[in-house]
Amino acid sequence: MRSLKIMSRLSSSLTISLLALTPLAAMAATTGPGTATSNLTTVSTGYVADATGSAEAASNAQFTVAPGSLTLNQVPNITLGSVNVKDIATADTTLAATVSAATTGSTYDGNNTGALNISDYRGDHAGWTLTVGMGPFTSGTSTVTSAKLDLNQAIGSVDNATTASPLNLTLSQGTVTNGWISNPETAWLADPNSGEGANTATTATSSKLTISKQPLISAGTYTATLYWALQNAPVAVTPAH
Predict the structure, then answer these.
(1) Average pLDDT for residues 169-195, to the nearest whole number?
(2) What angle do CA 138, 88, 205 make, to 5 degrees?
(3) How confident is the model at residue 9 (pLDDT cuts 50, 70, 90)?
(4) pLDDT at site 68
(5) Closest alpha carbon to 176 in 106, 234, 99, 74
């Protein structure tokens, strides 16, 4: 019995010594899945499936979503009714907005359907701000001294249901400096996590122009420029020009 105990002790010592000399990769689980340091690309043999269990492996599948752009796609022309010299020379006048083609003006971006359209495909969910300002109404050398435009946009379709509606505005005639309006107003605000995808609105029939009494008015067709600016953050900032 004493000799058997000695052999047993020798066998245990030998096993411990062999384990100490075995490489770490060989000691890794042979059924998987792998780790960062021991996996099917680094072990010398595959994972073993036997009566004790399955061989398991895990691999990766991935795809990339490329960022797009934040774009201003459509802005409306605002066409108003007409008034005769006598009426505007003797009292304040209100003209309703209509959907029709503008016949004068030196700008080219506006559409005649009242459409406003913004797309946000950046994928950063940062939000955005659309501002607008109105220059003075002029006809040749004649200028309207005071006019206010109630500009209302009715929301159409939006891809993100949390996107807020455009704001109803009252725009006064502003000062144009270096080719751009100096006092724009926020027309549409998309907070972070809103405004993604396509966003549409249409000039509402409640939009109107109120002109103060103009005793020195000259006959003619008066035009003002609307200055639209889309900014890639939900804050109103006067664009630099």
Answers:
(1) 95
(2) 80
(3) very low
(4) 98
(5) 106
Which domains are assigned to the chain? Answer: 1-59 (no CATH), 70-231 (2.60.40)
pLDDT tens digits, one per residue of 49-72: 998 899 999 999 999 999 999 999
Q: What are phi and psi of 137, to 5 degrees?
A: -80, 125
Count of CB atoms within 10 A of residue 72's CB? 15
The pTM (predicted TM-score) of the whole model is 0.80
pLDDT at 101: 61
Q: Which of 68, 72, 70, 69 is nearest to 200 (CA)?
A: 72
Structure tokens at 31: 């059924």
